[in-house]
Prior knowledge:
Layout: H1 3-16, E1 21-22, H2 23-30, H3 36-53, E2 58-63, E3 66-67, E4 94-95, E5 98-103
Antiparallel strand pairs: 1-5, 2-5, 3-4
The chain binds zinc ion.
Amino acid sequence: MNYSTTREKIIDILRKTDRPLSVDELALILDVKLTAKEIYEHLHHIAKTIRARSRECEVLAMEPPHCRKCGYVFKDLDKPRKPSRCPRCRSELISPPRFIILRKN
Ligand SMILES: [Zn+2]
């Protein structure tokens, strides 16, 4: 699969899924060798393009990552990614962000 095919496939999966998916789950469904970093990069671009392409009918929603130890929620991420450590309790047990494409109205 080339780069744009992969991106279209991710969009397709996130449209059809009935629950938000993590990057690891996406990699399993895609069945291609992509690093988490590469998939996050795809998601970053999908978030920017899908809104324009659908004339704002669709949006890539992200369930933010959270700390599994103290419950801290990472609300202010500039880009989709999995933080390595909780700023509040220093735990590294971070639940990854999950993604889904939602249609408005
Ligand atoms: Zn924490």
